[in-house]
Amino acid sequence: MDTALHAPVIARPPPSRTAGPLAWLRANLFGGWKSTLATIVIAVVIARLLPDLYGWGVARSVTQPDNAACRALEHSGACWGVIAEKYRLILFGRYPFAEQWRPLVATLLMVAMLVASCTRVLWSRWLAVAWLAVLAVFFVLMRGGIAGLTPVETARWGGVPLTMLLSTLSIAAAFPIAILVALGRRSHLPAIRTLCVVYVELIRGVPLISVLFMASFMFPLFIPPGISVDVLVRVLVGITLFAAAYLAEVVRGGLQAVPKGQLEAAAAMGLTYWQTQRKIVLPQALRMVVPSIMNSFISTFKDTSLVTIVSLYDLTGSLALALGGDANWRQFYLEGYLFIAAIYWMFCFAMSRYSQWVERHLNVGNKR
Amino acid sequence: MSETIIAFEKVSKWYGEFHALRDIDLSIARGERVVICGPSGSGKSTLIRCINALEEYQEGRLTVDGVEIKDDVKAIETVRKNVGMVFQQFNLFPHLTVLENLTLAPMWVGRVPKKEADERAMAQLARVRIAEQAGKYPLQLSGGQQQRVAIARSLCMTPKIMLFDEPTSALDPEMIKEVLDVMIELAGLGITMLCVTHEMGFARSVADRVIFMDQGQIVEQNTPAEFFAHPKSERTRDFLSKILSH
Questions:
Q1: Is ipTM strictly over 0.95?
Q2: What percent of chain B has pLDDT over 70?
Q3: Same domain, A146 and A176
Q4: Is the per-residue pLDDT at B189 higher than 80?
Q5: A176 neighbors A244 (Cβ within 8 angstroms)
Q6: What is the pLDDT of residue A28?
Q7: Are B105 and A270 an interchain contact pair (Cβ–Cβ within 8 Å)?
Q8: What is the mean pLDDT of residues A235-249?
Q9: Is B157 within 8 Å of A368 when comparing Cβ atoms?
Q10: For the CA atoms of chain B, what is the radius of gyration?
Q11: Cβ neighbour number for residue B133 with a 10 Å cutoff
């Protein structure tokens, strides 16, 4: 054994990375033959596809709402003219044409509120008050009937405002329900536990479409005659209950990941059940499942497109309406769907980025 | 000794078919410091966890500071307000800062205003010599520091009884001493202490009584001096020879 006296090694900074774009290329794209091969294959595929895409989408495309020019293309180029021609019908559905400034303002207000809600410095009680005010204004604008606005029945609401209303309200309502159901599934009281299990398994066992059908057509059969609940409300309840069942399972996953010791420590300190859930369990459980929660939210947002089957024309439904009713433009559905896909994507991408921010933001306690 | 604060009368507990505590009779005097030792699975943790109702028992009677522990939620809440507990795995709340860990129970259970809770917390952190870490999160601290925070957290509720469930078993050897030093200081405060531990040096210097458990029963109990010098039962001698031989 080496018994020489130990010579201390002073701690030093790590070696600096070999810098420069060339070094980066070598390390990331051409490090070894497998990496080089993959880089070349991908480059070739992109090089083959890009010119065609550019030619179809840009170079040979028609952007004017000129039906003859679009038809002359015979689909060798994109007919963006269909969007120029139909965008108001796509964005606002069957809402009366002359009154479409109302859904526009309502939508912008809602978007502004959503952005505000995601901004940390604005988190306060006033945000809840502002939400109530904005929702009230939203409904007044959309529905009319007061302040000199022409009444517009909910059946004619459509497009982006409808999609946003359905998804925002159903997500906002589903989240607290999901938390209660998830807690209920872990309750020591058999009646509550059974109720929650039955609810989740029942809802998860059927497609959203059938829930919507039931909400729309069967529900009215069970309520006394004379009372009528708006189809929009019924559908909203349907989507909410559906989303909550899935979300409840996500939350339950988080609850199960909280170590038993946390509950014991809270109990030993004398915290009640609700105090323990609120201050100890949920904050830890929810931050563990932020990505899955956002997954559910995004799903719910896109699921709202199914309301078309009960004759509510959300963004997807409005597009079908806009093109289906016009033989001249009907053939350019691909461009139309790309357009609404871009709108859906913008919302979903924003949600996804926000979830990443939340994750980073909430992770402080786990950093060493 | 003075008045009894904890009284076990023929307490039995089962985990399924397993008889974990068998007709335990034990009374602890106010201010007494008791060390409980014994092989793993002997029921020592279960015994102290019954005192703050983290475990329920099926037979017998357990009274803590005049309150009988049964299914009654209110009784359990009362007892838990007066009984602090320190766990082997610390069980600090990782999403709260050290200070927030300490003020949570006083504010929510004790209804103490935030300012007073903060002051109380800082005083307890100073007592365990860790005041400068108040703003950090538990996982940013060493194990020894975390356990000292956990002790301070319990003290913030000004408990009459402190339970320690193997408080040094999860610690590196270098950190055991800093925790034991804090516990030795506590022993001077007059709080009733029950400590499950294998730190026999601690038992010798602090305990009024050492209890040896095996198979859900109290096999032997005595003053530390007598317990270590003249263990009565064969089982105790065997156990001591194993843990003291190193």
A1: no
A2: 99
A3: no
A4: yes
A5: no
A6: 80
A7: yes
A8: 92
A9: no
A10: 18
A11: 21
A272 and A127 fall within a common domain = no
Residue A332's pLDDT band, with cuts at 50, 70 and 90, is: confident
CA dihedral A341, A345, A347, A352 (to 10 degrees): 160
Asked if the structure places residue A41 within a domain, the reply is no
State how far residue B185 is from chain A, nearest Cα, in angstroms: 22
Scan for tokens 């059974």, then name that residue. A194
- Helix/strand/coil (H, E, C) string of B31-100? CCEEEEECCCCCCHHHHHHHHCCCCCCCEEEEEECCEECCCCHHHHHHHHHHEEEECCCCCCCCCCCHHH
Separation of alpha carbons B167 and B145, rounded Å: 12
Interface test with A, best of B78, B93, B111 (most A CBs within 10 A): B93
Helix (H) or strand (E) holding A45: helix A33-54
Which of A265, A284, A287 faces B91 most closely, judged by CB atoms?
A: A265
CB atoms near residue A201 (< 10 Å): 10
Helices (H), A223-332: 231-257, 260-268, 273-275, 282-288, 290-303, 315-324
Q: Is the dihedral of CA B195, B196, B202, B207 positive or negative?
A: positive
Helix, coil or strand: residue A150:
coil
Q: Is B211 helix (H, G, I), strand (E, B) or coil?
A: strand
Q: Note down the domain range covering A317.
A: 172-366
Q: Which amino acid is at B74?
A: K
Number of domains in chain A: 2
Residue A187 is part of a domain; what is its CATH number?
Answer: 1.10.3720.10
Q: Is residue A224 part of a domain?
A: yes
